[in-house]
Amino acid sequence: MGDKAKNPCVSICKLKDDVCIGCGRSRDEMKAWKSMKNKERKVVNALAVGRLKALNKARKKKQ
């Protein structure tokens, strides 16, 4: 069955352009998390990692 996808929430629930700056999920993904299947959660986690990298890169450019 595989590993269970972990909730990426780090309790920094602040949105920038509809993406949480703490976990990288969109508002819709956060709302739907509990009803998602494990496979869907893994996809969301992978997307969230990419979003966080992009946010951090943009933040560093501003400094």
Automatic annotation (TrEMBL):
Which InterPro entries does the annotation name? DUF1289 (IPR010710)
User: Which is one Pfam family of this protein?
Assistant: DUF1289
Determine the domain of life of the protein's source: Bacteria
Protein name, per record: DUF1289 domain-containing protein
What organism is listed for this UniProt entry?
Stutzerimonas stutzeri
